Amino acid sequence: MRSTTRVTELKSLASVQNMTLAWQALYGQTRAASFFQTLDWFSGFCNDHDAAPRVLRVDAPGQLLGIIPLVHRRVKRSWGVVRMLGYPLPDWGTTCGPLGSNPTAVLLAAFRYLRQQPVDWDIIELAGINRMEVDHRRTLWAMQQTGWSVRETSMNRFGRLRITPTDSHPTSLQYRCFSPQRHELPEPAPDWLAIAQRLANRHSALNVSHRSGRALHDLACDHGAVQVHAWFQQEQPVAAAYYLRTDTELVELARGIHHDAEDQIDHAAVLGQVMQSNPDHEAIILDRTAPTPEGFDLESLITHRYTYARRTSARAQLWRLRAAWEDRSKQATGYS
């Protein structure tokens, strides 16, 4: 593998964006690719989070095998600043990973390359790994083959609703489903993510800050990845659900109903309408704390995080000790 693959590290957005067509082609080959693996999102994340691109391009003779979309950023903790290398995934993001149809070869070549390079990071943290359905422990295996001692943690934050035929829920409210495009909207464009979050204030919505949410909305609109479902009373939105859309799934960022409209529409009606509007999609991904009505079976979508802390970095070892202490605290309290 070492003699037949070549890894090139791209450290500027300009050099990454020169790969637009190749990135898009690899995205189309990637199983269960998420919006967080698009080039639009990568570029926006770097700008919004002051992150430096560290994209690893893996080539075989005459063939581009894949891309590892890494970023380098300084992350503040209560005890100091740690230099972290990882995927461009915010705390509320769902899944991420390598691009291409041969992730095993790409991961192994990329990690071997990183092992041989001068080190300017304290921690490698790869989050949002769908281990059971997509990754199948490839990431963990490739990191261990490199000689790294890896910490594995899981997060049971998201659930999956399979899209099935549902009955209509009559309502007197006016309903609209649309995918806003920024260039088609009047200025200033309605901030539908903020509207849905505001309506969800008594329920649950992913904790997307206003700044990140506005940037996300603009990027997703440009990518054609936003889908909004809204119900109006006297031309004012009284219920709304906001989704990021991929080829197979909808990722719910917020869903809410104004208390004055709860006698006219409920969450079963909202989710039922979303399913009716997306018969060609497989599932809806949502925060497990969001309201899930009876009759909607929520499957667990467990994601994993793989972390390597450099032994020679005092900051990395401090992070490792804090993480171990937090694990013991969770076990002692029965929290997971």
Summary keywords:
globular; three-stranded antiparallel β-sheet; Aminopeptidase; 10 helices; 14 strands; alpha+beta
Binned, the helix content reads: 25-40%
In the CATH hierarchy, the third-tier topology of the largest domain is known as: Aminopeptidase
Distance between the termini: 39 Å
State the shape. Answer: globular
Biggest sheet statistics = 11 strands, mixed
Strand order of the largest sheet: 2-5-6-7-14-8-13-12-11-10-9
Spans where pLDDT lies below 50 across 5 or more residues: none
Question: What is the alpha-carbon Rg in Å?
Answer: 21 Å
Mean pLDDT figure? 88
The total number of structural domains is: 2
Number of strands: 14
Query: How many helices does DSSP assign?
Result: 10
H-E order: EHHHEEEEEHEHHEEHHEEEHEEH
- The CATH class of the largest domain is Alpha Beta
Label the structural class.
alpha+beta
CATH architecture identity of the largest domain: 3-Layer(aba) Sandwich
